[in-house]
Amino acid sequence: MSVRRLAKDQPASFTFSKDTLETAQWWIAKYPAERKQSAVLPILWLIQKQEGWVSEPAIRVTAELLGMPVIRVLEVATFYTMFQLEPVGSVAFVQLCGTTPCMLCGANDLKKVLEKKIGPKNHVSADGKFSWEEVECLGACSNAPMAAINDYYYEDLTPESLAMILDEFAAGGSPKPGSRIGRGASEPHGKIQTLLDPKLYDGSAGKKIKIPNLPEKPGKAKKAEPAA
């Protein structure tokens, strides 16, 4: 894993919004008082949802809220790659998967679209609305190539479909997540080729299975049959 550091330029301060603080207190209350530091992960996530990223002042405020040393909160924020340590696009933050399956299916062509429409990776566009980065596997290999944009997955991408998605975001729209070729979940494209028997899903096949020597009641196992 590469070294993750806080952004060079930091805001002067951080303040929880009313709604964010209420939700943070709800998370803290889920733990015993002496274990409230366990809420650090959800609280950092709430901060990121409020601000778009996690700043150094936000880390200090979180440490104060939870009674933790600042270095401990910093360790959490820099360890988990789901936390962004510098500003991201306010409209669309694209995380492009560049791991082998996506790379073999055309991720490098998608990079060219992002570079053309947004600019270099790990930099926010001039208008502050877009940014992108390359990430490791996002777990949607069968629908490669794909990218996570904000909170959702966009799969089976082509350079043309990715460009259309970015244009829709730029126009103020909310592109529908999921496959761009109509694939259902991670099913084969077109139609299912295997496991077609309905009995595999309606439970009828399972009812016919009988496990030998299964105890009828707890602690009362059947006597084993004598060997032939």
Q: Could you describe the 3D structure shown?
A:
By secondary structure, this protein is an alpha/beta fold. Among the domains are: 18-79, Arc Repressor Mutant, subunit A; 92-179, Glutaredoxin (3-Layer(aba) Sandwich), CATH 3.40.30.10. Helices cover 35% and strands 9% of the residues. The chain is built from 9 helices and 5 strands, in the order ααααβααβββαβαα. The protein has a 5-stranded mixed β-sheet with strand order 2-1-3-4-5, with helices on one face. Helix 2 (40-51) runs antiparallel to helix 3 (56-66) and helix 3 (56-66) crosses helix 4 (70-79). The longest helix is centred in the first third of the chain and has 12 residues, at 40-51. It is globular and about 60 Å long. The mean pLDDT is 90.
Break the fold down into its secondary structure elements and pairings.
Layout: H1 18-28, H2 40-51, H3 56-66, H4 70-79, E1 92-97, H5 100-104, H6 107-117, E2 130-135, E3 147-149, E4 152-155, H7 159-170, E5 178-179, H8 199-202, H9 204-207
Parallel strand pairs: 1-2, 4-5
Antiparallel strand pairs: 1-3, 3-4
Portion of residues in helices?
A: 25-40%
- Gyration radius, rounded: 25 Å
- The 3D shape can be described as globular
- Biggest sheet: strand arrangement: 2-1-3-4-5
Main beta sheet strand tally, sense and closure: 5 strands, mixed
CATH class of the domain at 92-179: Alpha Beta
Gap between N and C termini: 60 Å
Strand fraction:
5-15%
> What name is given to the CATH topology of the domain at 92-179?
Glutaredoxin
Mean pLDDT: 90
Sequence of secondary-structure elements: HHHHEHHEEEHEHH
Total beta strand runs:
5
Superfamily at the CATH H level of the domain at 92-179?
Glutaredoxin
Structural class: alpha/beta
Please give the count of helices: 9
Q: Are there runs of 5+ residues with pLDDT below 50, and where? A: none
